[in-house]
């Protein structure tokens, strides 16, 4: 037997009591998820936190109604059955995978949670011929649909256009500070600082494999250095730049990618084919940096072009002259 697969019950095999117990545990889990979102957002996005507080309360209300129905029909002992016990039942992503992705991602996840639950119950109701079971599943689907309506009302109550605009701007600013800014710094460092050693090695040796090894070492070394430097330079508490781990990861990965971009072409055995390909990659890298600066950092296009393209061209020329000499 394969653990977690063959041991699961099919939904069609569940009794009405087990379906009701499954609904109760699902409502309880969703309420906990919404409260986790609210707690995560309370400091920076208080209006959105109130929305998730209200949705959690709504889940509690439905859970209490379901428990009362279970007590009336089946007694006080509720079977222990959860989502992971039922084959094909919709799953919830772990909270820690969602709460670190920002405000808008949480809103989208909450909407998906309600849609998934409603769709599941409606499809389940269509597949059963038992009148009581059909009515029970239909009631659960209606309850999930009412959650979506409640979410809309809560949004209107706690999150007007001005508040939403402020929170969206704050979320965008946090995204830029935590991911874009260190990632851009890494991309610039990796793309520009490795130009000289890679092309100096290329023109000095005209050996593509040696050039690739030098480029790989320079890129990985620079990525590790930039990642640790970024993570250690600021814990984010006072600056508001966010998790040092996230910033270090963004900086380190983008630094490595920036260098590897024009090192990988030297896996091509022919020297001039590899070098021309590397030229093209460098051109694309530099203009990508200009676009990111203009798009996310609001740097004027001409200034970004002057800083990045001119600087890159000077470093590139230095590498060629040193290697060619």
Describe the protein's architecture and organization:
With 325 residues, the chain is mostly helical. It has 2 domains: 9-159, Ferritin (Up-down Bundle); 166-324, no CATH class. It is 78% helix and 1% strand. It has 11 helices and 2 strands, in the order E-H-H-E-H-H-H-H-H-H-H-H-H. It has helices at residues 16-41, 46-74, 95-98, 103-127, 131-158, 161-193, 195-205, 208-233, 244-263, 271-296, 301-324, and strands at residues 9-10, 86-87. It has a two-stranded parallel ribbon with strand order 1-2. Helix 6 runs antiparallel to helix 10 and helix 10 (271-296) runs antiparallel to helix 11. The protein starts with 8 loop residues before the first strand and ends with a helix. The relative contact order is 0.09. Residues 1-6 have low confidence and may be disordered.
């Amino acid at each position: 037997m394969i653990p977690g697969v063959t041991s699961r019950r099919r939904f069609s095999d569940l009794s009405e009591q087990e379906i009701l117990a499954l609904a109760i545990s699902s409502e309880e889990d969703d309420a906990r998820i919404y409260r986790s979102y609210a707690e995560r957002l309370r400091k920076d996005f208080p209006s959105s936190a109130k929305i998730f507080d209200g949705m959690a309360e709504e889940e509690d209300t439905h859970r209490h109604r379901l428990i009362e129905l279970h007590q009336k029909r089946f007694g006080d002992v509720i079977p222990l059955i959860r989502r992971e016990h039922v084959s094909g039942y919709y799953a919830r992503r772990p909270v820690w995978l969602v709460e670190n992705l920002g405000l808008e991602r949480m809103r989208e996840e909450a909407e998906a949670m309600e849609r998934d639950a409603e769709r599941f119950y409606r499809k389940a109701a269509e597949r059963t011929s038992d009148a009581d079971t059909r009515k029970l599943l239909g009631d659960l689907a209606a309850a999930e649909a009412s959650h979506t309506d409640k979410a809309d009302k809560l949004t209107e109550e706690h999150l007007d256009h001005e508040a939403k605009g402020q929170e969206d701007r704050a979320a965008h600013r946090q995204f830029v500070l935590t991911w874009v800014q260190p990632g851009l710094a890494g991309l610039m460092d990796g793309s520009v600082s490795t130009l000289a050693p890679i092309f100096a090695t290329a023109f000095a040796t005209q050996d593509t494999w040696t050039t690739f090894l030098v480029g790989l070492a320079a890129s990985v070394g620079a990525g590790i250095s930039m990642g640790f430097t970024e993570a250690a330079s600021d814990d984010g508490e006072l600056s508001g730049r966010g998790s040092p781990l996230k910033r270090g990861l963004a900086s380190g990965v983008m630094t490595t990618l920036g260098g590897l971009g024009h090192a990988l072409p030297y896996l091509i055995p022919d020297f001039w084919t590899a070098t021309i390909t590397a030229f093209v990659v460098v051109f694309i890298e530099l203009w990508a940096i200009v676009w990111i600066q203009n798009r996310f950092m609001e740097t004027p296009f001409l200034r970004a072009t002057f800083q990045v393209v001119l600087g890159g061209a000077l470093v590139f020329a230095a590498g060629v002259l040193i290697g060619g000499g």
